[in-house]
C-alpha cells in the first residue's frame, strides 16, 4: 500500500548548519509514526518540511507516491497535511466554535447579504467534537477557559473535520500533566482509528509507546534508529533516547583506560 507520506534520505541545511541529514521514514493511513528526540535533534526541522514551512535541500519527499516540494503551509494543507503546533493557533477570547471555524466560517445568503451562519457553525462544531468523543459543556465558552488538553483535542477534531489525511502533532503533551496527556493520547488514537496517518512529535517515550506503530529516533539532525513497534520495547526505546549506547561505550572506554592504567 502506498504510504500517505514518505521521506527518503531527506536533508536540510541553514548556511553552514546541518539541521537534518539523511532522514527516512513513512506515514501510513491508520497508523502513528512517532518522531522522538531531545531539543536540537531535528524534530522541528522535519515537521516544518512536512508542513510546507521550509523546503528540503536533499532527498525525496513523497505524498501518496508523488514527489512534492511545498512552497507554503497552504499547499501542504491542500494535500491533506494538517499540523497542530505546540503553541496552538487559537484566539483565547473567542468561543470554541469561532476558533473551530477560524478562516473557514459557514455563511448564509449571497453577495452583500451574506452573513455568518452561527447556528450551523455551533451545531457542526458540537457534532465534530462529539464524533471524536469530546464532550464540551458549551461551544460558546471562550477557548481560553479550556484546559491545555481540551484545546489540543479541539485542534485535532478541527483537522479531522476539515478533511486532513495526515495529522502532524508537535509535542501535544509537552506542557500537560499525566491525566491531561492521557486524554490527548486517547484522541490521537481516535484519529488513527478513523484512518488518518498521524505524525506524533515528542521527547517522551512513555507518551509515544502506547499509541505509536513505528518510531524514528533523531539526534543532532540524524536518524539514531528507525523501528517498527514489534522490534523494540519501551525499556529499549527509553534507553536509546537516554543515549544508553553512548553511555555503555563511554563506560567501556573508562574501564579499558582503568585497566591500562
Automatic annotation (TrEMBL):
Keywords: ATP-binding, Nucleotide-binding. Gene3D superfamilies: P-loop containing nucleotide triphosphate hydrolases. Pfam families: ABC_tran. PROSITE patterns: ABC_TRANSPORTER_1 (PS00211), ABC_TRANSPORTER_2 (PS50893). One of its GO terms (molecular function) is ATP hydrolysis activity. Residues 5-245 form the ABC transporter domain. This is Sugar ABC transporter ATP-binding protein.
